[in-house]
Design goal:
Helices cover 66% and strands 9% of the residues. By secondary structure, it is mainly alpha-helical. It has two domains: 208 residues, Up-down Bundle (Alpha-lytic protease prodomain-like), CATH 1.20.1510.10; 72 residues, Alpha-Beta Plaits. Strands 1-2-3 form a three-stranded mixed β-sheet, covered by helices on one side. Strand 2, helix 8 and strand 3 form a beta-alpha-beta unit. The longest helix is centred in the first third of the chain and has 38 residues. The protein starts with a helix and ends in an 11-residue tail after the last strand.
Length: 301
């Protein structure tokens, strides 16, 4: 048990450090990239700086949500503030959509009013971005599958590194051939990358906000797992939802054999909960019924 607690504490410390370092590195790079973008008239750099700024905000909000999950439950908030992680994930996706609109608007404006761009400095600044985004992404690599916000941070940082690589190539082409519309084209590519990475995050967080079944939980497999436990006949009123971006809860009515004793019921409950943990369900509230019992819930299904 002590090892289990220590393991969770170690992961929490690692994640906290990853968020703080990620925020610091990316905030510094936003200042560098934005300044260079205005100085060298590069819309691609300015667009990428806007994207990176939204990532800094996303990381800051994710860090806030992560710390809120550590706050103890109260009489008012009996689950604590774990649900805030889902709300933050939704806010982050909406902020990114706003950034997409701004970059697209400026791209079309630049098409009508093209400007000369210094390609080589553009490539150098973007090259720094590859290094910073890659380092930041690696900070979240080990924990990327443990939480929706952590996965979102990792995906965005990897996408940023890829976009920075594209800006490097664009800068080299502009420097060699003086084709300035490449800068606008790259800014639109950045828009597509942001949209692609954000759309799934938006759908997942919105679904969890509406108490949809979380990704990674298959209701048919959950049902089969419960029915496979000795003593279980059937079940109904099965509901699964997310407490946070990393923890899922379940309630269900379990129909059991009539001859099961109270002492056996404890073991039965333990076996069911063990099966549910393997099905990515961490908190289960179970109500047991006999086969001939008339369940009064009007929403029985």
């Amino acid at each position: 048990m002590d090892h289990h607690i220590h393991n969770h504490s170690s992961k929490a410390t690692d994640l906290n450090r990853a968020f703080v370092l990620g925020i610091g590195l990316n905030a510094l790079y936003v200042i560098i990239e934005l300044s260079a973008g205005f100085y060298y008239n590069s819309l691609a750099l300015i667009s990428d700086a806007g994207h990176n700024l939204s990532d800094v905000a996303a990381l800051a909000l994710a860090l806030l949500a992560f710390r809120l999950t550590r706050v103890k439950a109260t009489e008012k908030f009996t689950y604590g503030y774990r649900k805030s992680t889902i709300l933050v994930s939704l806010i982050n996706s909406v902020v990114l959509f706003v950034a997409i609109g701004g970059i697209t608007w400026e791209s079309f404006h630049r098409l009508q009013h093209p400007v000369e761009i210094a390609g080589l400095p553009m490539s150098i600044v973007a090259g720094i971005g590859i290094v910073i985004n890659s380092i930041s992404a690696m900070l979240f690599f080990r924990q990327k599958d443990s939480d929706l916000n952590v996965r979102g941070a990792y995906i965005h940082l990897v996408a940023d590194a890829a976009v920075s690589l594209g800006v490097v190539v664009s800068g080299i082409l502009i420097s060699l051939f003086h084709i300035y519309w490449i800068d606008i084209a790259m800014s639109l590519v950045i828009v597509l990358v942001i949209f692609y990475s954000t759309w799934k995050l938006f759908k997942d967080s919105l679904s969890l906000t509406l108490d949809g079944v979380p990704n990674g939980v298959d209701l048919s497999k959950v049902t089969d797992a419960i029915k496979a436990v000795d003593g279980v006949i059937d079940l109904h009123h099965l509901h699964v939802w997310a407490i946070s971006t990393s923890q899922n809860a379940l309630t269900a009515h379990i129909i059991i054999h009539q001859d099961i004793k109270m002492s056996e019921l404890r073991l039965l409950k333990k076996n069911i909960k063990h099966k549910l943990e393997h099905a990515n369900v961490h908190h289960a509230t179970l109500e047991f019924e006999n086969a001939d019992e008339n369940c009064q819930d009007t929403h029985k299904k």
